[in-house]
Amino acid sequence: MANSKFEYVRDFEIPDPLLPNTWIVVRVDGRAFTKMCAKYNFQKPNDRRALDLMNTAARAVVADLPDITIAYGVSDEYRSARADNKGHINNLYNTSFWTLIQLGGLDNKEAEKTLAGTVAADKNEILFSRFSINYNNEPEMFKKGSVIFRDYELVDPDSHNVTQTIDSLAEPITQSKTQKENDKKRRAKARILVEHMDIIKDDFWDRRPWILSNKPGKIPKET
């Protein structure tokens, strides 16, 4: 558009600044996911190949963009924010639903009717009593999704004032260009982990204060 008759539109552009210390959450949803699953014959409700593919792609994005603090994957989407207990509830339902169809011979409507009004304990009982499936033995990735973050030395929660860390986020952070470059280098040196763990409980955040503070932690010593 530069040096063209449409260049005048730049006169109407206005700045769109972001508030300081504001978390930016990006949701990356699946595109044509159903077609892709059909093409590669991914199994329902979970297929390790598909999940590994998404985790690999998400890890590459985190590695390429040092400013990304944390990402987590649930179903066919990735987000950069906290997860809730929904990936778990949905997976238990989906596991029960597709087991009733694939192993129980029910159609979709019959499976839905069977699960209507059931709670988690009921679904666990259906899986175990009818199909000898112990849901607790399902892979953690299926039950809890995936979380991706940079690996620094874990912090002892008893020696770390979490409240002070969170409160400090309300204060603008002013860094020199050198400080910003140093932080970027430290992030680049950190390993990027793909874990399947509970990030709802405080322990995950208390032991990793760098996630909320957005300041790189201490690189673990190689053993």
Characterization of this structure:
There is one protein chain. 43% of the residues lie in helices and 9% in strands. The chain has 223 residues and is of the alpha+beta class. It has two domains: 23-83 and 145-214, no CATH class; 86-139, no CATH class. Strands 1-3-2-4-5 form a five-stranded antiparallel sheet. Strand 2 (70-74) and strand 3 (77-79) form a beta hairpin. Helix 3 packs across helix 4 and helix 3 packs parallel to helix 5 (120-131). It is extended. The mean pLDDT is 83. GO terms for molecular function: GTP binding; magnesium ion binding; tRNA guanylyltransferase activity. This is tRNA(His) guanylyltransferase. Residues 6-79 form the tRNAHis guanylyltransferase catalytic domain.
> Number of DSSP strands?
5
Q: Roughly how many Å apart are the termini?
A: 55 Å
Largest sheet: 5 strands, antiparallel
Helix content: 40-55%
Total of domains:
2
Structural class designation? alpha+beta
Strand order of the largest sheet: 1-3-2-4-5
Map the helices and strands.
Layout lengths: L26 E2 L4 H7 L8 H17 L5 E5 L2 E3 L6 H17 L5 H8 L4 H12 L8 H5 L1 E6 L10 H7 L8 H13 L1 E5 L6 H5 L2 H5 L10
Antiparallel strand pairs: 1-3, 2-3, 2-4, 4-5
Question: How would you concisely characterize the structure shown here?
Answer:
Helices cover 43% and strands 9% of the residues.
Provide tags for this entry.
single chain; alpha+beta; 2 domains; five-stranded antiparallel beta sheet; 10 helices
